[in-house]
Amino acid sequence: MKLEPFRKYLGLIVLAIVILSMIIVYFFSVIPLAFFLLFQSLFFLLCAVSSFFIVNFDDRSQLIRRRYLIYLISSLLGIISANLIPITIIITLPGPRISFNFLPSLVTALLVTVICTFILKVIINRRIPYGELRELTELEKGKNLLQIKNLKVYYPLLGGVLKRQIGAVKAVDGVSLSIRTGETLGLVGESGCGKSTLAKAIIGLVDMEAGDIFYRNININKYYSNIIRQKIQIVFQDPDASLNPRMKVVDIISEPLKNLLGITKKDQLRKHVLRLLEEVSLKREHLDRYPHEFSGGQKQRIVIARALACNPELIVLDEPTSSLDVSVQAQILNLLKNLQNTYGYGFLFITHNLAVVNHIADNVAVMYLGRLVEIGEKEQIFSKPTHPYTQALLYSRIRIDPDDQDIKYVIDGEVPNLINPPPGCHFNPRCVSDARTKECEFKTPRKIEIEENHYIWCVNPPKN
Ligand SMILES: Nc1ncnc2c1ncn2[C@@H]1O[C@H](COP(=O)(O)OP(=O)(O)O)[C@@H](O)[C@H]1O
Ligand code: SF4
Ligand SMILES: [Mg+2]
């Protein structure tokens, strides 16, 4: 049952029903409205508090996802039944109006709430698939996980005394891509081209200007539920910034277990955390240490374990190895690959390091100034780079000779400003391709198929 719409409008629904029942009873009774409002608010408060205690009694907080529904239904049934007493008396007994009887109504409201909460709790508890929620599940590989269609994210630029919007940084400007389970998409591009912004848009940290993001065919810009928030996890570049230095590892990893999976018993939490630490090759003795007692690679392992705690399906890795030594980078990459092989996670792996992409990615997308310029399978991109920017990136990687002091393959010119990118193809001031024409300066590049699953965005098809 989808609860998000309920939760979103919970306050409004409650208010409407309470006011409606108040008006009904008020018109049939003779007590002043002020008293009546007070009584009804007290009823509702008591009903909600009693349902809260019953739901959380006996460590049943696995019901955490459904608790709002239980509070809502039981409290409403309680308050409606409380109002039913005076209404029934008024309708069935002829004669003059009677006054509102507080005590029997209150007792009825509480009784009904307690009974309803118990019944709902038992029903919902039976329907929650705990095994699926709490254990790391193995996903079927090759299934559609994430689809991004024409995504645009603009940061407003404020200026002037009144701080009005005077422009926008078009950090992501019409990006489309897709990721399936068990697959890694490597996203490469120069610093500042919008890679992290794309990642943030996927996890709902920044607002989209336009476009759609589908997670398992659900449009998440309309419906970003807690379930999706749990299923998409992110690992940032700097583990120090991701870990609270005042918390022990066991508490850091317990947080998502408590908040998303509703595990609250201490021994169960430790058991789960230990299992997750073992997944990332850490040990029991690490449980009660603080982040500063670990090396950079170990900290990144803790961050990965915390991401796994949510039992995710898609993990966005935003330069997860960039701050690590090369040997440690390899360990983390291998760890990620092993986890993916076992559990079938989909990865969006963001990096500017082509060697890393070559090691881990199945598909590669190349980004330049907020737009994709080439996308394809890893072998296609590395053996047949077609867009002039991809070619320049790859050649600058391959042809640097440590004995030669002059770096030969440098893309000429400065990276243009995202606030005011060059019109037409953003790459046109730096493009040295034979295919470059005058049209590149004003026409928007179109998607051109090079071979199956391999596309570039260019105004003109490549010459050969
Ligand atoms: N919160 C923000 N407000 C305004 N501009 C931003 C903000 N965050 C990032 N930018 C700008 O958006 C562009 C893309 O940034 P980012 O996505 O971090 O790039 P990357 O991860 O590829 O290095 C950069 O020009 C950056 O300055
Ligand atoms: S559109 Fe023109 S300027 Fe841009 S990459 Fe293609 S050929 Fe070069
Ligand atoms: Mg970044």
Structural write-up:
By secondary structure, the chain is of the alpha/beta class. It has a domain of 125 residues. The chain is 44% helix and 18% strand. Strands 6-7-8-3-9-10-12-11 form an 8-stranded mixed sheet, sandwiched between helices. It has a 4-stranded antiparallel sheet with strand order 2-1-4-5. The longest helix has 26 residues. The structure holds adenosine-5'-diphosphate, iron/sulfur cluster and magnesium ion (MG). Adenosine-5'-diphosphate binds next to strand 2 and helix 7.
Structural key phrases:
464 residues; alpha/beta; eight-stranded mixed β-sheet; 16 helices; 18% strand; elongated; binds adenosine-5'-diphosphate; binds magnesium ion
